[in-house]
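help with this:

***
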Amino acid sequence: MSGYPPLAERMRPTNLEQYIGQQHLVGKGAVLRKMIDRKVISSIILWGPPGVGKTTLAKIIAKQLERPFFVLSAINSGVKDVREAIEKARKARFFSSPSPILFIDEIHRFSKSQQDSLLGAVEEGVVTLIGATTENPSFEVISPLLSRCQVYVLKALEKEDLLGLVSKVLTEDILLKKKNITIEEDTALLRYSGGDARKLLNILELVTNAENNQDNLIINDELVTTHLQQNPAQYDKNGEMHYDIISAFIKSIRGSDPDAAVYWLARMVEGGEDPKFIARRLIISASEDVGLANPNALLLATNCFEAIKMVGWPEARIILSQVTIYLATSPKSNSAYQAINKAQAVVKQSGNLPVPLHLRNAPTKLMKELNYGKKYLYAHDYPNNFVQQDYLPDDLKGTQLYCAQKNPQEAKTEERMKFLWKERFK
């Protein structure tokens, strides 16, 4: 099959009608669809996991808006490359014509100075920036640049999207449509692709290439699994196991297995993962999985993030290892995680209930006359710095959202709450 680009590239959509998924952005009446239809686009950042169509969408936008399209990859571009691209864009713009589009893949990998070099061109409208990132832009994109861009979140593709793509490939691809291929089972295809269209097509191409001499090819779960186990690197292009490994890492910590957790940490270290990415996941795990069973875990994880910024590789691996082992061996509680989930569910169900008058702020005379803050009991004026009064909206009186879990730390908390609130904490 030499002479042909990879399957994922052959099947890359060239217009919105061919584009799969992300209907919340490009479906009829959706925000990006409206902009594209009006041929007006502002600077945007597309945030989502690998293989969900960020690059493809950027190319479609440029094509449908008939704008010059310049591409930079944050992996191998420096400030000089950014300035050269901006200068090319400046020369490509004539009079009052719309600004060219500058697409930056993996913009989260740009340093502060590289991102700073974009600011003037974006601000002046020399270019319309489209950035693509797999990382939260709030952490990885500098505030001045982020304030000039609208962030749109792309989602992992659904099962129906992926199966529709497979069907399309087998009937439309210049090579595969010539073969008599039947998908007998799709569980392995879907499981290994994980909502990533590019990975799905890489797997399909790997299997069909390996079975090239077979007529009437039947693809089932056993065949897919066998080929992936034999050729793991061929379907995991561009480090796409990034999400699988961080998932295994966090689940090992949650499962209190320090050996497995350190193993997955080592996989990320050896793979050149960004230490800040690992540290942020440790902070989340410290709160979500260890939580109130060991409140010091969050402090240690937060300090870890600051420490690795000061130290850097290779010594940062030691700090990450220390915190990983600490979290994995800590007692576990997700009571804080469950409490906020319950609270959000209550808010969505009950709407914006009014704040009780005695809890309202009363900075003006009128507000005081309207009884704002009246009858509020100041806790420090009472024994144990506590007095029973209602703090929830009237419609939610007595609602319990935090439930202590069975660990020594929260047992003490629960005992104190029962002492103070009596019947409310049963």
Q: What stands out?
A: The chain has 21 helices and seven strands. The CA atoms of residues 6 and 205 lie 8 Å apart.
